[in-house]
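Sharing a chain and its predicted structure for anyone who wants a worked example. Both blocks are below, sequence first, tokens second.
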Amino acid sequence: MPTIKIKKKDIEKVKHDLKENLSKDYKIKVVNENAYLATKKPQKKYPEVKLKLKKIKKILNFKKELKKINPKLKSSYDVIGTIAILEIDIKNLKQKKEIAKLLLKTNKKIKTIVRKASEHKGKFRLQKYEFLAGKKIFTTLHKENNIQLKIKINETYFSPRLATERNRINKLIRPNETILVMFSGCGVYPINISKNTKAKKIIGIEINSKANKLAEENIKINNCKNITLYNEDVKKIIPRINKKFDRIIMPAPKNAEDYISITKNLLKKKTFIHLYLFSELDKIKEKRKTIQKQFKFLHLKTTKCGQQSARIYRVCLDLKNND
């Protein structure tokens, strides 16, 4: 690559003069009153010198580079700790690996690339993943809202997209509240609450033993002192809990509304309930009214906090016992 020598004061003039003949791959070097620029080919008008200039590090943009490979593919992906989960729907293994390696290049914090190979299925709402590039590790340490979580993506349901929603709940909690979290998974809601609020006591219930074991580890990682976990079926243990709560969180949108009736003996006069559900937008109001009528809850707020598919949204109903 030819390098020309000019006066420092003439940099802008020369850049305008040469335009497309200047190389964009190398930095301009300034020494005293002189400047050195890389050109694509020799320039008779300017003296050429033997000098190596520093290359400009190109920052690749995943979205733009992906379009070059296949413009029809989604560029969205989730990041859990050092693991990236691609949403690309493609059968060509060679192309999938090419895309995964591209993502590794464009995001240095990512060490493992997998692809969603199924929808969330079964009692524990787990997904299958196809490993594509990087280190074949499915365990990572994820950070959100001042906490750290050990996550095994193939053993527990976890969505990093809900960090903002979890922080919204944190901000609603008042000092000395006693809180129940149904379907507590890896402990993400109880630990968020423990570390970011002045709640008195948090109880988490989770049927998935592997997820509950992770929750126990995460409690130790975050040094939480006010959380008690139960590795049991919600329906079986709740009749044995002789306690009333200031707040109940039900973050299992697929079927959480089926469990509202068993909370009856856990409610105080003004217990808050955060009920998550999947619904089409035009049916949310109807669902909410049915729940209110059946359980005499006061509706405080409806928050849209994600999307399951083109028409189905995840929403949280903030309710209050009024019985």
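Comments welcome. The chain has eight helices and 17 strands.
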